[in-house]
């Protein structure tokens, strides 16, 4: 597959990754190579990666962090920063983030802030990280239960997408990443959406191309608006309510923890409903969105008493301005509109639609 050039990085695929990484290391001659993994990728992905990494005489150190969204904290960053310092990392060091979205988000933030910035490369190992988290330069950590409240936009030098790593993923993690692919179709490319919603006509060999197409869509959007002043905001469709739901379920122990994509799937249905009331999305499109998402994602139990705390969490959404909650909504499948506003009454209607469909 042909590599994709982003604003500051290059995304390489499958067998190309390791040859390009070899060239990169030779040209940049890092003082030390650090590899950040979590518990799972240490066991499932690191041996394969190390077997193909050609580092020459350069020292390689592996740092392991806990897995899961609850580990995406400034405390874990402190541990990684301290480990870098203890190992003698300098500004010529290279950090390779080998993992899912938590590892690439946190690792990118660590690299962007250690000594005011060291070079880093993302090697995403989950579907979510391949199509979304590792591309575009958004790095950061959560603030308590608030998603991605601390971070910077700082793109690494390279992204390496090796689809073979997906064989290590449990089914729920694969499904979680699929939510972001569906989102890319809904906000930007109806043809891509139609392809994704006819998966029974595809097989596993098509996954490479679908991932590639998803990265192309995200790169087009990010390249036009790297700092999220306008167009890039459309990537947040489903995330205003979705992030609030994810945070709420993360914070309340009596609720099951939702994976990112599971929460975003709910958010997309809710915000599709709002789109019919605010942006003229057709009822047929709403039915299609609801039906297709529900084929893959199980319904989440959200009760009446959950509405108010979820809505309160939306006040922390990063798209908000002057205390007003801003949504990304759909005018049609493939056409998104930014900076939309919705009343509390309409948001409650959306919850009731989701509850009763």
Automatic annotation (TrEMBL):
It comes from the Bacteria. The keyword Calcium does not apply. CDD domains: DHQS (cd08195). It holds the Pfam family DHQS_C. Its cofactor is Co(2+); NAD(+). Its EC number is 4.2.3.4. Residues 63-175 form the 3-dehydroquinate synthase N-terminal domain. The keyword Ubl conjugation does not apply. Residues 177-320 form the 3-dehydroquinate synthase C-terminal domain. InterPro entries: Dehydroquinate_synthase (IPR050071), DHQ_synth_AroB (IPR016037), DHQ_synth_fam (IPR030963), DHQS/DOIS_N (IPR030960), DHQS_C (IPR056179). It is an enzyme of class 4 (lyase). Coiled coil: none annotated. One of its GO terms (molecular function) is 3-dehydroquinate synthase activity. Keywords: Cobalt, Lyase, Metal-binding, NAD, Nucleotide-binding, Zinc. Catalyzes the conversion of 3-deoxy-D-arabino-heptulosonate 7-phosphate (DAHP) to dehydroquinate (DHQ). PANTHER family: 3-DEHYDROQUINATE SYNTHASE (PTHR43622:SF1). This is 3-dehydroquinate synthase. It comes from Winogradskyella immobilis. The lineage of its organism: Bacteria, Pseudomonadati, Bacteroidota, Flavobacteriia, Flavobacteriales.
